[in-house]
Amino acid sequence: MMTTALGWVSWLSLNQLSDRIAAIGKGIVTAENFSPPPSPARQARPENGLTETSVFTPPLSAADQPGAAWPESFQSEVRIIKKEVMKTWLLTASGLLLGIIATGFFLRRIRTGRTEAASEPPELFCLPNQPANPGQRGEGSLPRFHDPMTDHQLWESRQKLQLVLDNIPQYVFWKDRQSVYQGCNRNFALAAGVGEAENIVGKCDHELAWAGEEAEWYLRCDQEVMTNGIPLYHIAESQRKADGQKIWIDTNKIPLHDTTGKVVGILGTYEDITERKLAEENLTKALADAERAREKIDAILKSMTEGLLVVDLEGRIQLINRVAEKIAGIPPDSGLEQPLQTVIPEKGLLEQISRTIKGKRSVKPLEWQVRDSASDQDRTFVTLSSKVKNKNGEITGALTILRDVTREREIDRMKNEFIATAAHELRTPLTTIMGFSEILQKPEEFGIDGEEQKQEFISTIHESACRLNTIVSDLLDLSRVQSGRMITLHRVPCDITELLRGQVKKYRSEKGHHQYTCSIPDRVLPMLIDPAKLEQVVDNLMSNAVKFSAKGSTVQVIGEIIDDSFQVTVADQGIGMTPEQVERVFDKFFRADTSDTAPEGLGLGMAIVKNIIEAHDGRIWLESEAGIGTKVCFSLKISQAAPENGPDKNLPAEKTDLL
Known about the structure:
Elements: H1 2-15, H2 72-75, E1 80-81, H3 88-108, H4 148-166, E2 171-176, E3 181-184, H5 186-192, H6 213-228, E4 232-240, E5 246-257, E6 263-272, H7 274-303, E7 307-312, E8 317-320, H8 322-328, H9 340-343, H10 347-357, E9 366-372, E10 377-389, E11 395-404, H11 406-441, H12 451-483, E12 486-489, E13 492-495, H13 496-510, E14 515-519, E15 526-529, H14 531-547, E16 554-562, E17 565-571, H15 579-584, H16 605-615, E18 619-625, E19 629-637, E20 655-658
Parallel strand pairs: 14-16
Antiparallel strand pairs: 1-5, 2-3, 2-6, 4-5, 5-6, 7-8, 7-11, 9-10, 10-11, 12-20, 13-15, 16-17, 17-19, 18-19
Helix pairs in contact: 1-3, 1-4, 3-4, 11-12, 13-14, 14-16
């Protein structure tokens, strides 16, 4: 576009007018290279192509004489656009403006032998100190040289150049050193609300459609460019158009220099980037929404207790959460884009995913095991896969959930063992009861005739019945624990120290093959507790201490006041437990020793003990070391102690808690 514009200038100004232009230097005419026109008596040189009638008739003023001082304003009339403009359309606008300015000056400064005042087409680029009306002379103005043959050509050249400017899709304007507009193209004039381009001359930003803060901003940018002499490119700013529409524009501002390098104005161009700005805002919003969605998905994946992975049609992992990475035993984020068979080399899993991707209607859950390197134990997993489809309904991969069911399978195993153990535990006392009761029914057949022997059999039957009662009670307690039913604690004032002494005395008489030590405060400490349930707790703890320690070893029972609680400790010198066993000791059906020589028991005792203590608002814990022994402690708040003058009448007789 710049080439075309300059071509028009060259064609009009040089080819057709070459025989009328003389002494035009390489640059724009200045005071140093300008010679005044010849005197009226001097004939024009033939090569100029001018007739005698074209000679100026008015005499020259003193200012026009050779050697006269040219005003500074003349030196600042010319704008030269900086060569470093990078954009093609900036070069186009710059070339057009230079063409307009140069053509006007060149055709008005033709060296001829005569001068003549005549009217010229309106100036496209006028400065404040340059008269706008042709023929008007003043200080700082140039002598007007007139050739009738060039008037129309000059006007036509300017019209064509303005036509080019008006058809540029960008908005173009130029200002003087005081930020007063000296010209623009049609797009800018319409946006500014001045109608035609020539109406912009002499106006400032505060007089246009964007008066206010926007105008102040534009002026600050203008002054920065003209003060520093450095262009500003791609200024993203808002603009209020004449029709009230607010748009976003991408502005470039370039300082204009005269022949001495002095900044005399500014050239500006911009384009409407509102749609691009809205697209960027929408894209930013979409990215923010996507980031929030990603964060939510990431939070969900991190909070999942199951492993999750997604593979594409080629079997490469596209998504995997941390649980799945732990199952596979790989570092975080190291499995992405890796073939599944290299991360989890489980043949059954690969077959399940393959069947899913192929669209099989029913793919059953898969159960498989993997060796855990940390614990050196087998872990059991169940996996279930489903198809992943895109918005067109096409299968793009498979999503697989990996669930660790090791604990569940262990519980199932313990349940099965419990059923077998319970059957055995029930059968043993029942066999005893049935056998001795049959003997007592027919003592003569078995040779039983002594009363003392009969009483011994009756005592054995009673012990077996008590054993059955304990088993049934444990089963009932288990039922309550399993179903979440409520258990009623019958709280009454009871001296807990006396309760402990009674249990120790009982074991000394019944289980005399162990040593028992009792360290309990001598003071009476009555508390509102359920004595039957607390006896069950202490009995269970002492029973375990006896069962899992060698004969002759010592079982300690300690009661002490610690801060605001009363703490009970039962310690033995038995086989102890591993850290893994300690962690599971309060689980239902758990038995530390599952060998054939293990002591009798259903594996419910410690689970029931824990629930009873917690029902009393207490806490229980266990410390054990394999081969050293076990220490079980529980504590109850002393605030539960009964008043010294008896129970509070306002206190309910019972308290119901969840077992």
